[in-house]
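Appendix B. One record, verbatim.
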Amino acid sequence: MRRYDCYTIAVLMTLEDYGFCRKGEGGRWVEGGRVAAGGELPINTSGGLLSETGMPGLQLVMEGVRQMRGTSVNQVKNAATCIVSNQGGVMTTHSTLILGH
């Protein structure tokens, strides 16, 4: 999953909204490396806003495509599906793109 990580809470809220865990359980759900590289659901494999350009837009899509092609620097083993998630405004707009092969 590629996720716009403007604030830590935004990632947790998105995981909850997408149904990976129940509302209010995002923090506990990610414990133990579940969203780290090599975890059950790796998030922001290119480093998120703290890495690369810090400009999310197309950067998120590019990393998703790299994952699907198998060419990412931080490649997820056997990656078959990728969710690219972004938001804008003051958490008032949202977009989701699902990539797969």
